[in-house]
Amino acid sequence: MSVNGNIVEDEAHRLYRALRRIRRVEEVIAEIYSSDKIKSPVHLAIGQEHVSVSVCDCLEDGDWVGGSYRSHAMYLAKGGSLPGLMAEMYGKDTGCCRGKGGSMHIIDVAAGVMGSSAVVGSQVPVAAGYALAAKRAGEGRVVAVFLGDGATEEGCFYETLNFAALHSLPVLFVCENNGYAIHEPLAKRRARPGGICAVAEALGVPATRVDDGDLFRIRDAATSFVTRMRQGGGPALIEAVVYRWREHVGPNEDYDGGYRPLSEALPWMEADPVARVGALLDADVRRKVNEEVEAEITEAVRFAEESPVPRPEELYANVFA
Amino acid sequence: MSSPEPRVLRYVDALREAVDQEMERDPSVFVFGLDVDDHKSIQGSTAGLLARYGADRVFTTPLSEDAMTGVAIGAAMAGLRPVHVHIRMDFLLLCMNQLVNIAAKAHYMWGGQVKVPLVVRSMIGKSWGQGAQHSQGLHGMFTHVPGLKVVAPSNAHDVKGCMIAAIRDDNPVVFMEHRLLYNTESAVPAHPYTVGPGESRVCTRGDDVTIVGISNMAQEAIRAAELLREVGVTAEVIDPIWLMPLDIDTILASARRTGRLLVIDNGWMAGGLSAEIVAAVAEAAGPSAGIKFARMGFAPTPCPTSPWLEDHFYPNPGSIAARAWAMVRPERERWVPSAESAKLAYQVQFKGPF
Ligand SMILES: Cc1ncc(C[n+]2csc(CCOP(=O)(O)OP(=O)(O)O)c2C)c(N)n1
Ligand SMILES: [Mg+2]
Q1: Cβ separation A99–B308 shorter than 8 A
Q2: Which residue, A106, B135, B269, B297, has most beta carbons within 10 Å?
Q3: Which residue of A100, A196, A256 is the best one to mutate when testing the B interface, meaning the one whose CB has the most B CBs within 10 A?
Q4: Which residues of B are annotated as catalytic?
Q5: Closest CB to A100 among B93, B130, B304
Q6: Pair (B59, B80) in one structural domain
Q7: What ipTM describes this predicted complex?
Q8: CB-CB contact of B214 with B265 (8 Å)
Q9: In the predicted model, what is the mean pLDDT of residues B132-150?
Q10: Regions of chain A with pLDDT less than 50
């Protein structure tokens, strides 16, 4: 991570808080998981949080984000309600989807979080639709859509990039390339594993690859793309190379699964963006942030535990608008 | 001479064995689809196949279901016999164009000159927050289309026989599994055998009501029949096994005899299999047969994730038994089995009768 001198103190403070908060929320979810209180398949972003944090740091109220089943980080980074997320994990009536969506399908309309979708790639064209509406509104709003490396293999990815380029839509495609789709490495899925940006460019979507997990480089790329988009520039793509520390789905590590060695993960863990941004702060400041984050999470868990369960009639509500 | 103990296998192992035996018998059979070759091996259902047959015949794919379905169809038309695997039935929606517009029609629209011997495996998910996009039973969409066969085996014996029959069939077969059946056990012969298109199974004999259960609802219906027996009602449970072609004659004969037909689908009711079965029996039997009909299925909503809502989404042995009771004893007070006895069928180890 290139910590250049011009990163001001309160910026580091803001970024660290966002990173630490997401990391701890997901760690707490993983801890609670074994109690069976969270009956929902959880796809944790631990190790990848900085992508959501850096991209959302250049977004504003009125901008939108969309993502996959692995969207806790995106949701929180864009300002989605933490109690609403936690209660959704518990299947409670106060959850962000009133208990109908669970971990994989989360939304916070007020915060600009489009509903996340668990069918790989399905969020990508929907985000372009939001971008079409944003372009029509002409207020300089943008959409960022987060997707995995695997999602770039779905036909709708190519179709959407082509359309977004054709119509100069203000949509930033953020590919979080963690090298795996479940347990299958990129090399078993692509003849040219490094070719995601080239594909985007060929379709008319300028693309940047950040391969070292540097939060500030991702943010710089996002800032320049988003600034251009707000002035009527078209879509862009960022490929952020990252590493998923935990298993694909579930609360545990899975380095005993045989498909990837712990040694592959260790350099990423050593370069942990949460710790590295934290190191930019004074120890006292960092401790205070940590305490505040813990208090907020404790409160969210209490809220989830004490919230009422949905009434049976709720099953039939909202089938049609 | 004492007959040897029948061999008991889990559903997942019987399924795996069927594919293994067919791959052994016929080198044109191959298995592909997302994650078929990883260490989890589609919940164990493809375990060992890579080691045995190699990466030419057992391989994962890019996340490109639409195109991969077309590839499967082309390979099948060119003489191979693909088994294309999807871990959830919901993802078949990405395959729909190829399946409906090409696979189903190739033989017919090209004048009978090509065949598509393709098996499309997929699994229905349930519970633990599977939710709206990982739990759908979409068989009704496929039975709607001429040219596709559809099968939904509900036990270990049938899953093996159906898979062997599906692989040997010269038509595209949509093969529908259910996650909660994977650990259920029943007697499974070691040799290869078929449970062919159009075969159904009478699971329990009874005189008061005919209950048809589709996919894992067959298991839940059998459990409901046990609950009903305790209150003096005997139910004839029929598992149609193959939904296309469907053995309507067995259902018709039973419904004529019992005078009551209750169809439990593992899917929605509107425009689906339960409607089809009731309509077919009503048409064939005519009004003079006086058969009473009822249907149950998923609530007419997407599937919610909250367990408190999901409880009301699915039929269960208790609600099935209560419905059957109301059909058989309309003059009597409503009866609902206790929650304890109505525990889902998969929680009670089920071994037959087969
Ligand atoms: C259309 C579709 N096919 C298959 C799946 C099963 N599935 C869930 S996640 C996943 C891997 C996705 O990998 P990637 O896009 O790289 O995202 P990551 O999980 O690594 O964040 C697959 C194949 C699915 N949910 N949707
Ligand atoms: Mg990935």
Answers
A1: yes
A2: A106
A3: A100
A4: 65, 134
A5: B304
A6: yes
A7: 0.95
A8: yes
A9: 98
A10: 1-4
